[in-house]
Design a protein that fits this description.
Elements: H1 6-22, E1 27-31, H2 59-67, E2 71-75, H3 85-92, E3 100-105, H4 112-121, E4 125-129, H5 136-141, H6 146-158, E5 165-171, H7 179-189, E6 192-197, H8 213-228, H9 240-252, E7 264-267, E8 273-274, H10 288-294, H11 307-312, H12 316-324, H13 326-329
Helix pairs in contact: 1-12, 3-4, 8-9
The structure holds S-adenosylmethionine and iron/sulfur cluster (2 copies).
């Protein structure tokens, strides 16, 4: 994964430190639309939704000025359904290069021109969801032809050499045995990979959680192999601590201590603040303090270990270390990478 230039990285760390102590969010996820091009089995989005109250691109600047996050996810629904997505990204970015901006997408609407335009507008990382290393992806996502589209497009765009594409594979009971095959696919396509964990909270369905000792044994075996495959290039984007915490999340059937609303939050497509994408208490932008008081300080939910959470749940020294160590040990393919995990969705 490409390394962020030192100056920009210090900017991220500086702003992150300020936010940490000022109780502002480190990561903000802008869900720019609720509509989607897929009907994934593990997700509560899917298909067209009411987009009449969506924020306009220029509205995002006000949210950025107020929240001042150092990392932004542009997500949804499917963000590439917005025909003004490039304009949205321009309004999120600032001349300083901050925030580090990740587009989280299924890539059904991605094209070569759009990829290049989004890079120019300020996307630092393209997080592409991939649940299976073959056509089973189409079936799981309810989108015929999606795998074929990715199979043609991802290697083509990776060949530009920007090293900014990361496959995002959400581990479920259906694909736990495919963890290393998904890594093979990332290598074959010339991109990076990042794992996240299924949460039953989105749909209420526990079938895709790892429910049996056999499934957990497969997870342990697959993760052990992932650890053996690491090299100096950070192509396996999760930090080892996050892989371990993900294993514990499945084994303990949850992870307590969530800081949703404080360290990270979601801005819905119509501009309300939510603690996370799976908690639907909504607050206006100027009532973030009330969200922390009413939600975060009393939150006992332990029902996910999605990436946005797994990154910022760490202690401040650990977070800082995982972001700066790359400058002392990194020998990347293209010489560019931000510390593990912060570069993920
Ligand atoms: C909600 S989607 C939005 C962006 C885009 N539509 C996509 O699929 O990448 C963001 C990520 O959440 C993951 N996701 C969906 N349902 C989930 C669940 N129940 N638990 C954990 N992650 C989930 C998806 O696999 C995807 O990688
Ligand atoms: S995971 Fe993404 S692509 Fe799938 S239904 Fe949810 S929002 Fe849409
Ligand atoms: S653990 Fe936290 S981020 Fe996850 S669903 Fe619960 S409140 Fe949301």
């Amino acid at each position: 994964m490409r390394k962020v230039p030192l100056i920009e990285s210090l900017g991220i760390i500086g702003r992150g430190s300020l936010n940490w102590f000022a109780q502002r969010p480190i990561v903000v996820s802008f869900e720019v639309t609720d509509s989607c091009t897929c009907y994934c089995r593990h997700c509560d989005h899917g298909g067209p939704k009411d987009d009449s109250r969506n924020l306009r691109p220029s509205d995002y600047r006000h949210y950025m000025d107020t929240l001042r996050p150092c990392v932004v996810q542009v997500s949804g629904g499917e963000p590439l359904l917005r025909d003004d997505i490039v304009e949205i990204v321009r309004n999120i970015q600032s001349p300083s290069g901050l925030p580090y901006t990740i587009l989280v997408s299924n890539w059904s609407h991605m094209t070569e021109d759009l990829y290049l335009e989004l890079r120019r507008a300020g996307i630092d990382q393209f997080s592409v969801s991939l649940d299976f290393p073959d056509e089973r992806h189409d079936d799981f996502r309810g989108h015929p032809g999606l795998y074929d589209h990715l199979n043609r497009l991802v290697p083509k765009l990776a060949a530009h050499g920007f090293d900014d594409i990361v496959l995002n594979s959400c581990i479920t009971s259906e694909n736990v045995a495919e963890i290393n095959l998904l890594a093979d696919k990332a290598q074959g396509w010339g991109v990076n990979i990042c794992y996240s964990a299924y949460s039953p909270r989105r749909t209420g369905c526990r079938d895709y959680f790892l429910n049996t000792p056999e499934q957990l044994a497969v997870l342990r075996r697959e993760f052990a192999r992932v650890e053996e495959r690491r090299d100096g290039t950070n192509w396996i984007v999760n930090a080892p601590t996050t892989i371990e915490a993900t294993r514990q999340y499945f084994e303990n059937r949850g992870t307590p201590g969530c800081k949703a609303g404080l360290r990270f939050l979601v801005v819905t497509c119509d501009g309300q603040l939510q603690p996370c994408s799976m908690q639907f208490q909504r607050y206006p932008l100027d009532e973030r303090g009330r969200m922390i008081e009413e939600f975060t300080s009393r939150n006992t939910c332990d029902e996910c270990y999605v990436s946005i959470r797994s990154y910022v749940d760490k202690s401040f020294p650990q977070l800082l270390w995982e972001n700066v160590r790359g400058f002392f040990s990194f020998k990347g393919r293209n010489g560019r990478s931000i510390g593990s995990d912060s570069a993920r969705a």
